Amino acid sequence: MKLLHLCSFLASNAAIFSLSAQTTDIPVFITNQTGSVWTFPQNGPFPYDPTAHSPNPVVSGLVRPLGISYSPNGRFVYFADRDVPAIYRFPSNGPFPSTPESVVTSGINSPTDIGITPDGSTGFITNRDDQRVYTFSTAGTLPRPATVAVTGLPADADTYHIAISPDGKTGYVSSASNNAIYAFSTTGPFPVAASSPIVTFSGGPVYGLSGMTFSADGSTVFVTDYGDGAIYSFPANGPFPIDLATQSPIVTGALIVGASDIQFSSDGTTVFIPDDERSVYSFPAAGPFPYSVTAADLKVTNLPVGSSLFGIATWSPWIQTASLHGNNLILANYLNANAPASVRGLFFVLQGDDLNHALESAAPTRNAFSTYASQTAQMSLSRLVNDHLGQQRWRNHKQTLPSETASIENTESLMAESDVVAMNYRSKKEQKQSARCCQKKNVGVWFGAFGEYANAKPRHQTPDFNTGSGGAVVACDYNGIYPNPIGAGVAYAHTHVHEDEDAGYANIDQGDVFIYGTFPVANWYFDAAVWGGYYHSKNARNVSFTDFFGNEAKCKTHGWQLSPHFEIGYDHWMNWLGLEPFVMADYVACWEHHARESGPTLLNFGQKGRYCSLVRGEAGLRIQEMLSYCWGTLTFMEKASYAYQKAFHTGKINAFLIGSPGSFTVTTLTAAQNMGVGEIEVLIEPINKSCYASLAFHVEAGSKYQAYQGMVQIGKDF
Questions:
Q1: 0.85 cut: is pTM over it?
Q2: Dihedral sign, CA of 572, 577, 578, 579?
Q3: CA nearest 195: which of 147, 236, 152?
Q4: CA quadruple 449, 455, 457, 461: dihedral positive or negative?
Q5: What is the bridge-based pairing of β-strands 180-185 and 199-200?
Q6: Which tens digit of pLDDT belongs to each residue from 80-107?
Q7: For residue 192, what are the contacts with CB-CB under 8 A and spacing of at least 6?
Q8: Contact, 557 vs 537, CB < 8 A?
Q9: CB 89, CB 77: distance < 8 Å
Q10: Environment class of residue 568 by beta-carbon count within 10 Å: exposed (0-12), middle (13-18) or buried (19+)?
Q11: Nearest to residue 462, comparing CAs of 704, 709, 217, 708?
């Protein structure tokens, strides 16, 4: 139903809104106090002469039309006719000339301006004769009655203009005769009392503050000084009160005579000002300020003699932000301030959960998952080396255990001489073989591989995701300096990321070189390793939400990693049993290059280069038990520990919409992980062989992250 509704809306408003149309195709409407409404295109040619185009005007036969405003969905244009008195509307796409439809015909006696809340549900009307603000519902059968919404304005306020904040929570009313602006809550219950003046203009002209408009992000209010033809601005959130007399105007110009109203163009780059001399001027929204309007800024001219322009209405599909928070609010504010209407139009018809889901799908936040996956894969590679060093410490310890020859010698006295001779011959031969086997060689080569599955719940308006990783290391040990090895090697890992709800995926390849060693001091040991490498990721975000199927936004990211590892522990050996309390720390630092997405969707983002890291600390106990057999030994190794893991800036993406100015920052993966860790490993060593093999299973689990890793190692001493 929503899709059919949107298609119907787009078809019926093709003249003002198209996803492929330029923002500047949306028409601007202006009211002429002599009884008509005119229009001009935002893309010119300028100066534009409305009388040279047909139809002119688009609405006629009125008495005294003043304030004018688009509906938030862009479908209608509302205006106030003060002397009827009534509120009317007409379809923004015509046909023209248009016969307006009555919206409010009772409850008001001198309406001067109208403002519509961003959700399109409620209208507010300034009423000059009794200095009140009235409200009405846009739903239901028309015409509708108006009821009192705001009281308490001064009797001589001369209220002409109203503006509604982008979040829909606050209304501003200007008082031309008092040179003041008042605020009121639009959320009711009504009637409410207006505030004390939040803005004043002491020493201003006799007829001063008039038209108002908000910047796209809602942070700034622009207000016209009718008497002097100047423009001032002030922060929408204060602090209040503010006296504009203490500030300089941001726009001046002797050509502007009676600046009655003000509105941004649909793309937010230009600001239009109608005046009493049948003209519309403009100035660039970004300045530089102060700006002086010249003849080159003339946009509309040559309206009929006697015309006095009052109101101006532009429309842009602003994203409604009242129900948003977190990353969704950050992205919506950025798009409202910087994105073209063709992009904002994807979201403006959405509300509630549909809007939140759409912004989550559109945001580039999920590109952080691949970086995080490369960091956790690096931790898994490091775990292979860490386990290898533990194996080598145990193998060295085995050389210090009592040999079997002592028990053989004790039995010789009980045997016949011939048997003793034969046994001595065999035992000496076996001892030589055993000695050659058990004596630790100076050089060893080993290979290790792992496979891992992990699930992460990052929250922060991003979906859960799973990773599947696999990798291998090849390294060489050297035992010629310490009883335990030092060594070096190379490593490779591949990781696939799958986001829940088919929101996207990524494939990461990374390679490393590394050095490592374990250094004993009495029963203490110190393990250390340093990794350095490169990673490359191919990311794909599936941008899809209500009534929009944008396909994939793809990008390639790459960067460099540096990862030190350090562990300290204590070995307590009891022949066949070993206890090893330990504490370790790992750090993965990433320097990631900038990236740009591409694809058929309108929502391709670029992201800036960044530095980020992943920190992990772990403390616990290892236990080793050895079983001897005629063919060799089996050593079982168990580990139980607590791990703390936290990403720093890994989930922080500083991004921008490709083709648009500005930037914004979204974050995810900020929560620390507190995890329980368990591991079981079996080390296999055949007798009279200088080789070994191991199998291990590692699990770590917390409330928002779980990982399951299998490992295998084989090695040979030379």
A1: no
A2: negative
A3: 152
A4: positive
A5: antiparallel
A6: 999 999 999 999 988 999 999 999 999 9
A7: 149, 150, 151, 184, 185
A8: yes
A9: yes
A10: middle
A11: 704
